[in-house]
Structures are given as C-alpha cells and as structure tokens.
Design a protein that fits this description.
- Two copies of one chain form a homodimer.
- Chain A is an alpha+beta fold.
- Chain A has two domains: 3-37; 41-174, Alpha-Beta Complex (Nucleoside Triphosphate Pyrophosphohydrolase).
- Helix content of chain A is 20%, strand content 44%.
- Chain A contains three helices and twelve strands; from the N terminus they run E-E-E-E-E-E-E-H-E-E-E-E-E-H-H.
- Chain A has helices spanning 81-93, 145-153, 160-174, and strands spanning 3-13, 16-24, 30-37, 41-49, 52-60, 65-69, 72-74, 95-96, 99-106, 117-123, 126-127, 137-144.
- In chain A, strands 4, 5, 6, 7, 9, 10 and 12 form a seven-stranded mixed beta sheet that branches.
- Chain A is globular and about 55 Å long.
- At the A-B interface, strand 1, strand 2, strand 3, strand 6 and strand 9 of A face strand 1, strand 2, strand 3, strand 6 and strand 9 of B.
C-alpha cells in the first residue's frame, strides 16, 4: 500500500478538490501524487425503445472540443446516485424515466482520482419539459444503438463512460441479464 | 464553447498538473472548473496466446485499494505513445512484445482531465527480465480472457481502461478487424 506523508497543496472547486501529496511507496521510496477527491457520479443510457437512445452534445473545457456523450453528472451533497441519474437525465435531455437498471460502476481515472461512475440503462422515457441545462448542453440527439457502436469503432465517440455504458449493456444483454420487460 | 477567464491556482506533480480556472460558459455565466493537464498515456492488453492475457496487481493511492488491471502508464516527455506502451509492458510485467495493434484511444475523465489513453493489443510476448517496477506492481498474473470478462460482469474489475480495452478487443474481433496472424 501507499501512505500519505503530507499534503503540499490543495485546490477547491464546487463539490470537489484536487490535492498534491507526498506519498511513501510500498518499497519505501517517496514520490508525489495528485489526487482528485470527487463525489459519486451517475451516467445514463436512456432508451427510447430497445434500439434507440438519447445522447447529448456538449462543450468539454478540459479537452477544448464538443463531444457526443450519454447524459451524466456529479451527485449533489447527500444525493443518492440513482436520484442523481434521474435528475441529470431530466436536466440534460428534458425526459424522465420510469425504470433504471444499473449496468456497471467503475473508476474512470484510477491513477489520480477516486471518482466512481455508476452507469444505468433507463427506459419508459417521457418528455416532461424544455431542457434546463442550457449552460452545458447544446443539443439532444436520438441515435440507433447500432450507429453508436459504429461511432465508437470509427473513433467519433471517445468518451470513456459512453463506451463502457454501451459495452456493458451489450454484454449483459448477450448474457440474458437485461429483463425481458425492460423496454415494454 | 467555454473560455478561461483566469487561473486561480495550480498544482505541479511529476509530468502533470491540476489547475483551478474561472470559466465563462456558453450562456455567459461564470463558473469554476478543475482541469488536469495530463501527458498522453498507453495501456496494453498483452496476449500470451489468443485466449490468455497478462494482468498486474497494484496499489492505487487515489482509491486506497489494490486492483487488477492491464499494464499502463504515462508517456515520458517526448516519448512516442507506442514506445511508452512497450516500455510500460516491460517494466510492469518483464515481457516484451513483437506486435502491437491499436484497439482504441479515448478520454477517461472528460469532465476534468485532458488525458488520452491509447490502448493496444500486444502479441509475440517473450520474457526478458525480472520486473523493474517493484515500486508499484505487486504481482503479475495470467488470466484466461473469458475469466476477465466474467470478472468485469461480477464487478471484481472496475478499472475503466481495462474494461474498455477488453470490450473494444472483443468488438474488433467480432467485426473481423483483428488480423488472422496476430497471435501466430
């Protein structure tokens, strides 16, 4: 294991922080590590029917480009991750869902962040309102799921949670772990 | 798009940084964002034969636990990513590879990091030396690839790059995009 010797500096953003620590490695050697302390996060693969999903286009500051992704976001303090998934779906797409099925939970950036993303499939979608999150989302699109797999293979989609959500959905469907009435 | 108004603070680790910026959103509203400025990174799915891969156990400081992952690491300044892949494979497992095939490149943490991970399949493995990276790697293991998929589904493996590497390998193999002589 690795133990913290001291924290050299810390940055505070809304709801999460990044800190630089001096760390003792398993061999005894010292090094420095950046650690992002991140709240839990949720992502949603929203199924309009068994073959079509909603995706969002948004500008990503860290990579300075617009991307095509599944809806996602950080949990507010004290918020259950499933509640967060439903809220982010509504804010980013204007749809709510009747059913959520957890597909996977994982560490996106294990080298420097404790973030855990839980990915859900959602179905029973109903349009409720104009989107709220105009600050971040520029467009909502409907895509055939087969087209999404093609866009992963050709490199158009390069967002980790989107690739994992769609891949794990396919794996679970092939293994018979998506309930037969999920899309009804 | 989103534009930086000013940088409020910055942390420097070896070869990468985290900074806190004030940012103007597309709607004109101001917010703060943490951005990790990360070098390119490589990950390798190392095939001993068409059905067995090497994986490594290592302690992950950010999540305070040991994990089972494919070998990976950051490129040194000026280092080609493919060279980095070969170096990390050798340092973490003690094997070198004759053949590398790029499976995918993606953004693991698009919300706060510009990191890009390129994942390769590697074959033609040959043991060259005792492992060097005793600081980080506690054990090297051989796993049947079907077992790795099972460990993803049951949640034992929760590392994003490992899930994406194995998922994209399976997708490309199903689509006939892994050359027939890759394992020979």
């Amino acid at each position: 294991m690795e133990t913290r010797i001291k924290t050299l500096g810390i940055l505070h953003a809304a709801h999460f922080t990044a800190q630089l620590d001096t760390v003792r490695l398993r061999t005894g050697r010292l090094t420095e590590r950046i650690k992002v302390d991140h709240p839990e996060a949720a992502a949603v693969v929203p199924f309009l029917d068994s073959e079509h999903i909603l995706m969002v286009r948004q500008w990503r500051y860290a990579i300075e480009r617009e991307t095509l992704e599944i809806p996602a976001g950080k949990a507010d303090p004290g918020e259950e991750v499933l509640i967060c998934a439903n809220r982010e779906l509504q804010e980013e797409t204007g749809y709510r869902a009747e059913r959520f099925l957890e597909l996977f939970r994982y560490f996106p950036a294990i080298g420097y962040s404790n973030e855990v993303i839980r990915i859900y499939a959602a179905s029973g979608l109903a349009r409720i309102e104009a989107r709220q999150d105009e600050d971040e989302i520029s467009k909502v699109e409907v895509l055939p799921i087969q087209r999404v797999y093609d866009l992963m293979v050709d490199g158009t989609i390069r967002d980790g949670k989107t690739v994992i959500g769609l891949s794990m959905f396919r794996t679970l469907r092939e293994r018979g772990q998506i309930p037969g009435d999920f899309f009804s």
